[in-house]
């Protein structure tokens, strides 16, 4: 049996179309055009590609594009002032500070200058706390997009075994929490896990966000599992993930490709969060 492909490109396109139509309705009823402010520091080529994709997708969905690009040698106070200006700017519904930042900048302090209602990346300490308590709030885009992918398979998550590899603040941490909120039995594995295959072989849902190219192969995948590959690495053979696709797809029931899996869902979810943010601010201004 070969796995069915979880086509993130197609599922993200459908989500972007739905968001675009809801944005048009929102503009019609409120007169407010949602705005997304992306903040890019420096010239990292991958970050430039991602930010360009986010801006283009926003415009295509009827969201206003407010971009700030600052030099790599910017100091902490300058970028703090930019974020504070965006925080008070009524044209801005959502603020996304593209990561990683140059190491001498204090990312956490800068992210926490984003008001919770404009935190479309779900990365502030407050948004993380709301998720930890299962209270309503903006959720990080990648795990939220992955939940949409898993739901597209139609599998029943209640009582299922889920394994997340990785515990980052951007992906693995919030992913485990969101799967728990859907009543799965969640295990988090990471670089210190002794016997990875022993843990992953029971997974009905396996989310791989380890940042290690080709970490997961045939010996890790339970028959029929949903396998989500968050990894994205440049290699001689183009982009590859954390999962050896050729091997894992022989056993998985569903599997995401790289590219065309999680990446497009991250961007579509960012647009969804920007609309949610605009709705919150229309109801109760920041
Ligand atoms: N504050 C912040 N929020 C983020 O959400 C964030 C971030 N910083 N820093 C970096 C990571 C990475 N990320 C991706 C988004 C889209 C694709 C994407 O569209 N990938 C395409 C391929 C793109 C390509 O060709 O390189 C795909 O997988 O099909 C990938 C990765 C968001 N991130
Ligand atoms: Mg890790």
Describe this structure in words.
This protein has 286 residues and is α/β, with parallel strands linked by helices. It has 2 domains: 31-117, 3-Layer(aba) Sandwich (Rossmann fold); 142-264, Rossmann fold. The protein contains 10 helices and 11 strands. The protein has helices at residues 8-30, 45-60, 76-88, 107-111, 125-132, 141-152, 172-181, 196-200, 245-248, 262-283, and strands spanning 4-5, 35-41, 64-70, 94-97, 161-165, 185-189, 205-208, 226-229, 233-235, 238-240, 254-255. A 6-stranded parallel β-sheet has the order 1-11-8-7-5-6. It has a 3-stranded parallel β-sheet with strand order 3-2-4, sandwiched between helices. A two-stranded antiparallel ribbon has the order 9-10. Helix 1 packs parallel to helix 10 and helix 6 (141-152) packs across helix 7 (172-181). The chain is globular. The termini are far apart. The model has no long low-confidence stretch (mean pLDDT 97). The structure holds 5,10-Methenyltetrahydrofolate (GUE) and magnesium ion (MG). Residues 49-50, 53, 96-99, 121, 141-142, 232, 258-260, 263-264, 266-267 line the site of 5,10-Methenyltetrahydrofolate (GUE). Residues 6-121 form the Tetrahydrofolate dehydrogenase/cyclohydrolase catalytic domain. Homodimer.
């Amino acid at each position: 049996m070969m796995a069915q492909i979880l086509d993130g490109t197609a599922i993200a396109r459908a989500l972007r179309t739905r968001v675009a139509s809801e944005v048009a309705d929102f503009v019609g009823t409120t007169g407010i055009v949602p705005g997304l402010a992306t903040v890019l520091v420096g010239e990292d080529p991958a970050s430039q590609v991602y930010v360009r994709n986010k801006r283009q997708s926003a415009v295509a969905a009827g969201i206003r594009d407010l971009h700030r690009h600052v030099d790599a040698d910017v100091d902490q106070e300058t970028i703090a002032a930019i974020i504070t200006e965006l925080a008070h700017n009524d044209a801005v519904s959502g603020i996304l500070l593209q990561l990683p930042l140059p190491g001498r900048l204090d990312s956490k302090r800068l992210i926490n200058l984003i008001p919770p209602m404009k935190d479309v990346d779900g990365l502030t300490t407050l948004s993380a706390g709301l998720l930890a308590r299962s209270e309503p709030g903006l959720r990080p885009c990648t795990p939220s997009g992955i939940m949409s992918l898993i739901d597209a398979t139609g599998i029943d998550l209640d009582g299922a075994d889920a394994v997340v590899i990785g515990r980052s603040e951007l992906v693995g941490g919030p992913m485990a929490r969101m799967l728990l909120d859907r009543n799965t039995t969640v295990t988090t594995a990471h670089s210190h896990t002794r016997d990875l295959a022993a843990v992953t072989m029971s997974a009905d849902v396996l989310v791989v966000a380890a940042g290690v190219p080709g970490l997961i192969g045939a010996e890790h995948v339970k028959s029929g599992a949903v396998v989500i590959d968050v990894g994205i690495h440049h290699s001689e053979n183009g982009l590859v993930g954390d999962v050896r696709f050729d091997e894992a797809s022989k056993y998985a029931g569903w599997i995401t490709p790289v590219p065309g899996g999680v990446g497009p869902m991250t961007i579509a979810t960012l647009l969804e969060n920007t609309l949610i943010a605009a709705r919150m601010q229309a109801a109760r201004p920041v």
